[in-house]
Prior knowledge:
Elements: E1 10-16, H1 24-35, E2 39-45, H2 48-61, E3 65-68, E4 82-83, H3 85-90, E5 95-98, E6 105-108, H4 111-121, E7 130-134, H5 138-149, E8 154-159, H6 165-178, E9 182-187, H7 191-200, E10 203-206, E11 232-235, H8 244-251, E12 256-258, H9 261-276, H10 282-290
Parallel strand pairs: 1-2, 1-3, 4-6, 7-8, 7-10, 8-9, 10-11, 11-12
Antiparallel strand pairs: 3-5, 5-6
Helix pairs in contact: 1-10, 4-5, 4-9, 5-6, 9-10
The structure holds nicotinamide-adenine-dinucleotide (NAD).
Amino acid sequence: xxxxxxxxxxxxxxxxxxxxxxxxxxxxxxxxxxxxxxxxxxxxxxxxxxxxxxxxxxxxxxxxxxxxxxxxxxxxxxxxxxxxxxxxxxxxxxxxxxxxxxxxxxxxxxxxxxxxxxxxxxxxxxxxxxxxxxxxxxxxxxxxxxxxxxxxxxxxxxxxxxxxxxxxxxxxxxxxxxxxxxxxxxxxxxxxxxxxxxxxxxxxxxxxxxxxxxxxxxxxxxxxxxxxxxxxxxxxxxxxxxxxxxxxxxxxxxxxxxxxxxxxxxxxxxxxxxxxxxxxxxxxxxxxxxxx
Length: 292
Ligand code: NAD
């Protein structure tokens, strides 16, 4: 036990399964220590079956907030007292606050904010931009909704014809109804449309997880003529740090080839602000955890 833990220490939890690999406990605890905040952040193996009891526990123990990951991001919603507008549209929550430990639980989703902040960190804004996005699962939906809220001009979503395809359609419908952004969905099998879309886009985002094990030898772009010096390529994967897509984009001279580390850092920073009201010392955490 470190010296800084006392009888007054406030607890923040992370509830998901599997979760032991997560960088979030280290990220938040290092940030608490750096700022001298009397909080501790612990991960708990919690699946859907334990969720109801866990929520009761959060309320009973006055746990001040929680991050939520798979498989609980959607399942937690019915147990909350309030859900933020963006989390409602995304249909998933990754952060819950319990201000002053009074048991009023509010759900947020900081994944999309994390992605937008990661792009900003590289000098890239989404306002008025045309974005091609592959993947409309948890990460893709959060990115699509946030980019639309942040003023993207067009979001061209491409998804394989699997169970997520209908979610992609639903996400596009919500964006078209609630924002000025124009969203479309196309089957990724239509490679002609996919290539045309990328050739007209400012930013290409891959939110599929292709490029991560066991798909580390796959990239959804293999045609070097699609990589232009004014195209930003962003892959949400951070392990490996450089996916096949990012290597390809770099090799063929893309404007930027950005991995998912920044998204992961900034979704955490946005959650940290909601938990504590303080700004996470991101430069310090970046250097400590990511050696950048
Ligand atoms: P998900 O299962 O909800 O969605 C996966 C998406 O990829 C779906 O749209 C699916 O149709 C598509 N897909 C799956 N296999 C494909 C293939 N072979 N070709 C093309 N499309 C395919 O998953 P998720 O929770 O959205 O996570 C996706 C990735 O995002 C994972 O690698 C995850 O680690 C990463 N992620 C990163 C961060 C971050 O902070 N950097 C945050 C959340 C998720």
